[in-house]
Amino acid sequence: MKQILLITDGCSNVGMNPVTAAAHAYAEGITVNVVGVLDQGDLGEAGATEIHEIAKAGGGLSRLVHTKELARTVQMMTRKTVMHTIQHAVHKELKQVLGNSSLESLPPEKRGEVVRVMDELGETSELRVALLIDASASMKPKLQAVEEAIKDLMLSLQSRQGESELSVFHFPGGKHGEGAALDMSWTRTMKDIPALFARLHMQGTTPTGPAIMEVIDFYRKDDYGRGHRDDTDGLRSDYVV
C-alpha cells in the first residue's frame, strides 16, 4: 500500500493544479492524505477547500488541525487510510462472490471472520508513506511540530507487524524551486530525522501540484527498482490505493 501524506498551511500558487496531480496519484495506486496546519488564525476558505479537494481526488482523508494536534492526526490518518483501503478491496472481492449482497448479509460467524481478516491485514500488509512537507516561508514556525509528528509517525509504523517504510520530501525544491526535493529515502528508523530540518531552506512559493507529481515519479522509479513486484501483500493490486 502506498500513501502520500501532504502537510501544508496554504494554497498552491505555482504550476499544475494539485487536485489534478492527486487524481494522477490515485490512478497509480497512491492514496493522498492532506493535513492543513493552523497557527494563530486559519487557512482561509480557499485553502481549506483546496485541501479537501486534493484529498478527495487522491482517495484519501483531509483534516485541518492546530500544531499541537498534528502528531496524533498524522498517525490517525495513516492507519485509517490503511483500513479503508483494505475494506474497499475486501468489499469488492465479496461483491464479486456474493453479487449484490453485502458484508452485513453474511451469517454472523462468517462476517466476524471477514472482519478479523481485515484487522489482520491492517497490521501485516506492507506500507510505504511518502511525507510531503510544505516548506514555504509561512510554515517555518510550524516545523518543530512537523518534526515531532514525523517521529511519532515512525514510532507508529514501527509498531506494525507488516513492513513499513517512510520517505520525506519538501517543497518547493529542486533546481528551480518548482517541485519537490527528496530529503530522506525509504527508511524504517528515526536516526536521520533530526538532521532533516536543519537543511531546509524556507521559500515563498507553494508548488503543491508539481510536488505531488515529483513524489509520484519517485514511486514509479522505486517500483521499477523493486522489479515490479506486487506490494499489496495478498490484496488485488487494482484495488489497492
From TrEMBL:
Coiled-coil segments: none
Segments forming domain VWFA: 1-86, 128-241
InterPro entries attached to this UniProt entry: VWF_A, vWFA_dom_sf
Protein name: VWFA domain-containing protein
Annotated organism of origin: Paenibacillus roseus
